[in-house]
Design goal:
43% helix; binds flavin mononucleotide; de novo design (two linked rop proteins); four-stranded parallel beta sheet; iron-sulfur; four-stranded mixed beta sheet; 3 domains; 11% strand
Length: 428
């Protein structure tokens, strides 16, 4: 791409090592110093609301509203946790941000903690991200040396520490209530919402602000440049840029920062360089495996929360997975059904029993042992279990098979009719 004007989080790295000098030269930590000076949480919250920043962790919830709920909670004891769990297949933008540009996250965490008046602050970091952790610790050391973090920050009398918490390393542990459970030494199992929203009932039963790495990384830039700057790109309801993790059948997989609302075609063809080896797009997961796939006729869809929801799918945390036309969709469905079965935390019976049944049935079809009754059974079970869990894992598992059968019924039928998979075996 030639035009990098929209880049806010991923500045070109050449000559810009993202140490504290480079970050401060670009106005880094100015927003934090202003927050300290002015001590006006309502003004910070109002700026985030005017920027219409929406959470980048999956649900697209309005960030300013969440901060307001925690800040105005009647309980004086509050907590802050940055969610850097990132265990979904096809999503790798948070570890990229922490590894290559940790200071904007640290500044975002400081502002968030201070604004909501957190008693303690944490970054829940996937324990597998060793490089990201090393860079984050180094950056925290630099921030401490400059007096931005720690005791009596810049002589203000404010003390603020951020603790890195070793994350559990399971998909469900990234769900905010499960994450908070695991941080209190309990199994990483989601709690039922309502009533257990972290903004009311989080760490130690107290109001807790939970935000994603990317959401927090946007905050210092918005406060420094103003909400009008942020809303210059992207649609009115979800402005700004988003980091797209692009993987699967593309020539150039990677993390791309683009204005929300950019077409999927632009992402795949211009950024990703199209599908390798002369193959074509067969399907795309625009929001990771938990949201419905779309076919090649929908590549002009706009990649933002509302457009994808309207199209019957979702943006999630923008983990875009491209599938080429040489792929067996039954095998692809089996792979992801196995993921959902493995990652079910075992708490909700419809989830752990349903994901197991679905995996077994799809496996039977892929191995050429399935019948038309098995296909009916897949539709029946997925219909029963959808929406029945304390988190959305079970819904993701059921949407996957329903959607795959709807888009690629002929491939499932061919496995049943031929008693074998018509595609070449998967490469070992
Ligand atoms: C199964 C599951 C896994 C999730 N994993 C993550 C994760 O790894 N990182 C994340 O930020 N949010 C994850 N979420 C979303 C969080 O529950 C929560 O909405 C988010 O951290 C809030 O931050 P945001 O408002 O800044 O997006 C997950 C949700 C579900 C249902």
């Amino acid at each position: 791409m030639t035009n990098n004007n929209h880049l806010r989080l991923l500045q070109p790295l050449e000559g810009n090592p993202w140490n504290i000098e480079a970050y401060c030269q670009k106005g880094g930590y100015e927003a934090w110093q202003r927050c300290l000076r002015e001590n006006n949480p309502d003004s910070v919250i109002s700026t985030l609301k005017r920027a219409s920043l929406r959470g980048r962790g999956g649900a697209g919830f309005p960030t300013g509203l969440k901060w307001e709920k925690v800040f105005h909670h009647r309980s004086a004891e509050r907590y802050f946790v940055c969610n850097a769990g990132e265990h979904e297949p096809g999503t790798f933008k948070d570890r990229h941000l922490i590894t290559h540009s940790p200071h904007q996250l640290i500044e975002g965490c400081l502002i968030a903690s201070f604004t909501v008046g957190a008693k303690e602050s944490f970054i829940y970091l996937n324990a597998e991200f060793t490089e990201a952790r090393a860079n984050l610790e180094k950056a925290m050391g630099e921030a401490r040396e400059r007096g931005f973090l720690g005791k009596n920050i810049l002589g203000s009398g404010v003390n603020l520490e951020i603790e890195i918490y070793d994350g559990h390393g399971s998909y469900v542990a990234g769900e905010e209530t499960a994450m908070l459970e695991s941080m209190q030494g309990r199994p990483a199992q989601p709690k039922q919402k309502p009533p257990f929203y972290p903004t009311d009932f989080g760490l130690h039963g107290k109001p807790t602000l939970v935000n994603n790495v990317e959401t927090l990384s946007h905050v210092p830039h918005i406060l420094r440049n103003g909400p009008e700057w942020f809303t210059q790109v992207g649609p009115e309801q979800s402005p700004g840029t988003m980091l797209f993790s692009l993987s699967g059948a593309v020539n150039r997989p990677g993390v791309y920062e683009l204005p929300l609302g950019t077409s999927l075609r632009h992402l795949i063809e211009e950024c990703g360089g199209g599908v390798p080896n002369g193959k074509k797009v067969k399907a795309v997961f625009p929001g990771g495996p938990s949201f419905a796939m779309i076919g090649p006729d929908q590549l002009d869809l706009h990649m933002d929360f509302d457009s994808l929801k309207k199209a019957g799918t979702g943006l999630g945390s923008a983990g875009v997975i491209v599938v080429d036309d040489a792929t067996c969709m039954v095998r692809q469905t089996l792979k992801l059904s196995s993921f959902f079965r493995e990652e079910s935390c075992g708490q909700c019976p419809p989830c752990y029993i349903g994901t197991e049944n679905l995996e077994e049935l799809v496996k039977k079809i892929e191995e050429g042992q399935g019948t038309q009754q098995d296909l009916d059974r897949i539709m029946q079970i997925s219909g029963y279990i959808k929406g029945t869990g304390f988190c959305t894992l079970v819904t993701g598992a059921s949407v996957l098979v329903q959607n795959s059968l709807r888009l690629f019924r002929s491939e499932f039928d061919a496995h049943v009719a031929n008693h074998a998979c018509p595609f070449a075996p998967a490469p070992v």
